[in-house]
Specification:
Blueprint: E1 5-10, H1 14-20, E2 27-31, H2 41-52, E3 60-64, H3 73-80, E4 87-90, H4 96-113, E5 121-125, H5 130-133, E6 146-150, H6 154-160, H7 174-190, E7 193-196, H8 205-218, E8 222-225, H9 231-237, H10 242-257, E9 263-266, E10 269-272, H11 273-284
């Protein structure tokens, strides 16, 4: 599942879905949670069911369900876990236990609806509750359905009673820098994709590009989008350049030519096994080679 760009679409808006379909996002997240008013939840579930029955598509079909505690989670799962669904985004998780619980429900629903076991993958928003921030070590235990983790600051700052989560210059305040880093580390421990949070100002393409550059530098491999205008920039930023790919191929080739050494020299610089792992990951992101160390 390619996860450079994941575009949120309100599940109750046929117009917005029509605009998003074909925009170039790797995944569309049909949202049953925050962007759907309480009185529209049932309508939104029905809309997702209808869309799942559509024809071929070149993007992954994801659904953000309502979190535990709302009383809506099981209704969401029963409505949308059916053929055509690629994955579920679980918001406001408190830890791996919530992931495991959703996974068990999906086990049953796959059997009931004729989906091959394990086909429906799980993604989580991992930093939206205070409890989540102290439970990250659980992700190292892993869940076979889990493929990606992202983070968010708005619900967490509301739960903590923060006056703001941004500095005057627009950067995250320290608690939310911690949340971002914890998500990145937990994704690494779980062996899943780390996805950066949304960039709120969809008109600021330069700011988005710079934010994506920093995210990719730190180890994130994709990003959530809140507007179709953001997708092309995100895809470009999280796609290795020709120079990146050429360098990665040189690193892999150098180690292949000297299989009994742990360090190789290229253009006067020394490269060791972590560089080989990174090079393989770069190539794997475009479907070339493999990502194993």
């Amino acid at each position: 599942m390619k996860l450079r760009s994941l575009l949120f679409v309100p599940a109750d808006s046929e117009r917005k879905f029509a605009k998003a379909d074909g925009i170039g996002a790797d995944a569309l997240i049909l949202d049953l949670e925050d962007s759907v008013a309480p009185g529209r939840k049932a309508f939104a579930r029905g809309a997702v069911k209808d869309l799942l029955g559509g024809g071929p598509r070149n993007w992954s079909f994801l659904v953000r369900i309502n979190p535990f505690g709302t009383g809506l989670t099981l209704e969401d799962l029963a409505a949308v876990v059916r053929p055509g669904l690629d994955g579920l985004l679980i918001p406001k998780v408190n830890g791996i236990e919530d992931v495991d619980l959703v996974s068990h429900y999906v086990d049953v629903l796959e059997v009931a609806t004729g989906i091959p076991p394990g086909d429906v993958k799980l993604l989580v928003v991992a930093t939206e509750t205070p409890a989540a921030m102290i439970g990250f070590n659980g992700y190292a235990r892993k869940n076979e359905r889990l493929v990606a983790m992202t983070w968010g600051a708005e619900d967490l700052s509301a739960a903590l009673g923060a006056l703001t989560n941004k500095e005057a210059d627009g950067n995250w305040t320290f608690p939310y820098q911690v949340a971002r880093a914890q998500c990145l580390f937990a994704a690494g421990a779980a062996g899943v994709a780390a996805l950066d949070t949304l960039y709120a100002d969809f008109r600021d393409q330069d700011g988005l590009a710079e934010s994506c550059r920093l995210a990719r530098r730190d180890g994130f491999v994709g990003r959530v989008a809140i507007h179709p205008a953001q997708v092309a920039t995100i895809n470009t930023c999280f796609t290795p350049s020709d120079a990146d790919l050429a360098h990665a191929r040189r690193v892999v080739a150098a180690f292949a030519a000297a299989p009994d050494v742990g360090t190789v020299g290229i253009d006067g610089k020394m490269y060791d096994i972590p560089h080989l792992v990174a090079a393989r990951r770069t190539l794997a992101s475009v479907g070339e080679g493999h990502s194993n160390g």
